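Deliverable D2.4 — example input (structure tokens):
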């Protein structure tokens, strides 16, 4: 071997020496040293072999790294510089890539702080074709931490009470540092009472006393509890909240079917919507309450095994329906307020929560009420008579017309058969002409015996609001009408002579009375016929 300022000449056992550039040596070898080199070229212009020590070192090291990757052995290296996405690590003649996420178990805030430091690494990727090596330091740190955790956890016992520091808070719980290992304090194990988030009870860096409720050595998991250090509140709930006891609590949850009331930490009772009022029909509890309200209630039932308590509010007052028959006896008269109108009647409130129904048939003696709004309005105060009471069905039947005496006995003497009265046209229908008579009565001249082609002429002749004299034929109390008769015009016959048409201008509508109704005396009918014969227009 020979040395110059630029080259190192090495005897490789061939006729000529090999040449290695001096820059490939970090320490210049001495004459007689044995060196491993790689033949790059067999002959240059001077007939010398071109050799490389760096490539020989790389190839030797590459083969070692392949073995380390396959066997899982770790390597030591020095972080030499920072690049995009991570760091470059020199692992003795081979440069490898260390991703930023694999430097430490915790997020790295200053990458430059690691430049120049030597660490132990694990090869996680080895690409033969691209001569690319990827390292991880995080895997080794996690493995080391797990081993330490397993060692610590193996010394734990279920039920052991420990001191710790709240390290992190999440939606589902808090992580507590127990001095080398972290334990999970789940949301449901923080308090016997209802909490929506761990931050309601805990804060970062807070010192807490916890109890070990479970652990797994292999997975290095520890489950902790705080509420387990306090007595189970349901142990004596059946004695403390006996049936019939009156309690005070706070509404902590509201559902469509009721509200949950916190009686103490860990004990809640349900007030079902059906137990809120004796009389009101409540569709949703928010009609009465809101979250955070303080309420008084009575205990209805207790089930310690299912951890359920049923509560009631209406039980704090007497049920008004219990003595409804005494308070509202049949035939008694009361003042009420119209609360609602329907097609079939009106609901009248006699007192808060006590409503009765006035059917349309019980609103007027004489009027045919087609809809309650024809007579009543919401909020109107009226007098009603109690017609029927049912405590079991919680039902009251009321009447408005029954407050007054029945006028029909008198009306029958006024509207006797054959009496001529004045009436104002209300409606003209195919079935007849409806008249408004005195005493709020309605009368009808039926058209059922008139031919269909004649009815249109009649409908065009008689207009609402016009007044005519009509003759009472009979009184129909059942349908609250007076059956009337009158002379009605008859359509002209265009084919007949004018004089003949004038003689048939009117027809008399006389209806056959029903067998169970009043009949017109024959002498009155004779008089009416005689009057028609003397009529100059007949």
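Example output (designed residues):
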């Amino acid at each position: 071997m020979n040395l110059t300022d630029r080259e190192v000449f090495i005897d490789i056992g061939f006729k000529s020496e090999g040449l290695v550039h001096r820059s490939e040596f970090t320490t210049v070898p001495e004459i007689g040293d044995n060196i491993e080199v790689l033949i790059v070229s067999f002959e240059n212009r001077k007939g010398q072999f071109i050799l490389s020590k760096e490539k020989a070192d790389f190839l030797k090291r590459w083969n070692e790294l392949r073995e380390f990757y396959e066997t899982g052995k770790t390597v030591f290296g020095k972080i030499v510089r920072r690049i995009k996405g991570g760091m470059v690590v020199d692992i003795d003649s081979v440069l490898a890539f260390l991703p930023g996420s694999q430097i430490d178990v915790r997020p790295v805030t200053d990458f430059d702080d690691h430049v120049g430091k030597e660490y132990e690494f694990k090869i996680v990727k080895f690409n033969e074709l691209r001569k690319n090596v990827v390292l991880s330091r995080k895997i080794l740190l996690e493995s080391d931490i797990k081993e330490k955790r397993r060692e610590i956890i193996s010394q734990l016992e279920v039920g052991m009470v420990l001191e710790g520091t709240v390290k992190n808070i999440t939606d589902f719980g808090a992580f507590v540092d127990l001095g080398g290992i972290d334990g999970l304090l789940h949301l449901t194990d923080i308090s016997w009472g209802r909490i929506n988030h761990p931050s309601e009870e805990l804060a970062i860096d807070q010192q807490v006393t916890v109890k070990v409720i479970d652990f797994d050595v292999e997975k290095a998991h520890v489950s902790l509890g705080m509420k387990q250090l306090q007595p189970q509140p349901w142990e004596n709930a059946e004695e403390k909240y006996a049936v019939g006891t009156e309690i005070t609590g706070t509404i902590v949850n509201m559902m469509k079917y009721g509200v949950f009331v916190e009686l103490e930490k860990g004990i809640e009772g349900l007030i079902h919507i059906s137990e809120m009022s004796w009389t009101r029909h409540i569709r949703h509890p928010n009609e009465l309450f809101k979250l955070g309200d303080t309420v008084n209630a009575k205990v209805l039932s207790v089930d310690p095994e299912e951890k359920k308590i049923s509560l009631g509010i209406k039980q704090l007052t007497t049920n008004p329906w219990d003595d409804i028959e005494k308070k509202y006896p049949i035939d008694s008269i009361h003042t009420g307020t119209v609360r609602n109108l329907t097609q079939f009647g009106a609901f009248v409130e006699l007192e808060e929560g006590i409503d009765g129904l006035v059917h349309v048939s019980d609103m007027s003696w004489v009027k045919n009420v087609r809809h309650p709004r024809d007579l009543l309005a919401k909020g109107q105060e009226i007098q009603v008579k109690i017609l029927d009471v049912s405590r079991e069905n919680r039902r009251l039947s009321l009447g408005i017309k029954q407050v007054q005496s029945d006028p029909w006995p008198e009306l029958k003497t006024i509207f006797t058969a054959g009496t001529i009265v004045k009436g104002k046209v209300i409606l003209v229908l195919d079935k007849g002409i409806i008249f408004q008579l005195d005493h709020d009565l309605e009368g009808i001249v039926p058209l059922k015996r008139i031919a269909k082609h004649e009815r249109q002429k009649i409908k065009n002749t008689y207009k609402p609001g016009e007044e005519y004299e009509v003759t009472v034929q009979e009184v129909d109390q059942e349908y609250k009408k007076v059956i009337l008769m009158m002379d009605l015009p008859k359509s002209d016959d265009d084919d007949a002579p004018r004089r003949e048409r004038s003689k048939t201008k009117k027809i008399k509508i006389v209806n056959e009375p029903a067998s169970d109704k009043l009949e017109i005396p024959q002498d009155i009918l004779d008089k009416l016929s005689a009057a028609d014969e003397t009529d100059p227009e007949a």
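The radius of gyration is 54 Å.
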